[in-house]
Amino acid sequence: MNTNIQTFTFKSQNVRVEYRNGDPMFCLKDVAEILEIKDAKSRNFNLNQKGVEIIPLPTKGGIQQITFINEPNLYRVIFRSNKPEAVKFQDWIFEEVIPQIRKTGGYQVGQKTTADDRTGLRQAVAALVGRKGIDYSSAYSMIHQRFNVEAIEDIPAEKLPEAVAYVHALTLHTGLTGEVLDREPLPTPQPALPISGNALYDLAVAVRYGAWAIQMGRDVSLPLKQLGCKQAVTMWTVWAETRSRLKAAANALEALNAHADAEHAEKISPMLPEIRNLSSV
């Protein structure tokens, strides 16, 4: 049996994944079953044969030749399905599985951070509690709500810097109940990057228009595909691969906008939900 095979579970359905040179190869049969595509032969998907591997695996019927496909070919297969489940599956692949594989070399369900990983966050929470006069339970409840987790260790490792920045922003915020000032308010902190309000606004506008253009590319990809346009799959793939990046860009802009002057912050704030909406289905 191939020791490089891992089995992931999506809504009680298994997806076998095999790694070649660190890159994931997905079992075509498993993917087709999730997407409710009956005929899962590789020739039906116009796949790039450089991203197709035939791997002998033991099954109940004996050793069988199983087809595995790389990430670009996976996009082509997902693009073929019109089922609502395809959207949920693509979100799981693009926003959870692929980013974790690229970051850690593998995918683990429910992977938790260690106490050492969370040292910076604990220090930030201690500062928040001391500065605002609130209890630890309230501080951690705000973090749980912000990152939609039940426990701090459930925050992904790559999100910990964002969590620390969020707690620092709470510490600087003047509207929390229980705040007691023992001195004059601290001066407004300098931006994390040497960037002016105008430059930050221009960056936000560029991201918004980029998100808009990518979304329009996705919307026209299907009719273009039906017309035989070879770039249709690429347009859809660009949208699929960029969605998580656009959401991350919106989060980064939000963090920077907290340090912007009032005039530019007021103009940038409405763009952030628009960028997030454009990166959603």
General description of the model:
By secondary structure, this protein is an alpha+beta fold. It is 53% helix and 12% strand. It contains 10 helices and 5 strands, in the order βββαββααααααααα. It has helices spanning 28-34, 71-80, 84-104, 119-132, 136-147, 160-172, 197-226, 232-257, 262-268, 271-278; strands at 5-10, 13-20, 23-27, 52-59, 62-69. A 5-stranded antiparallel β-sheet has the order 1-2-3-5-4. A hairpin with a 2-residue loop joins strand 1 (5-10) and strand 2. The longest helix has 30 residues, at 197-226. Residues 177-191 have low confidence and may be disordered.
Taking pLDDT < 50 over at least 5 consecutive residues as the criterion, the unreliable ranges are 177-191
Span between N and C termini?
39 Å
Shape: flat
Radius of gyration: 23 Å
Task: Please outline the major beta sheet.
Answer: 5 strands, antiparallel
User: Which range best describes the helical content: under 10%, 10-25%, 25-40%, 40-55%, 55-70% or over 70%?
Assistant: 40-55%
Overall residue-averaged pLDDT value? 78
Structural class of the helix and strand makeup?
alpha+beta
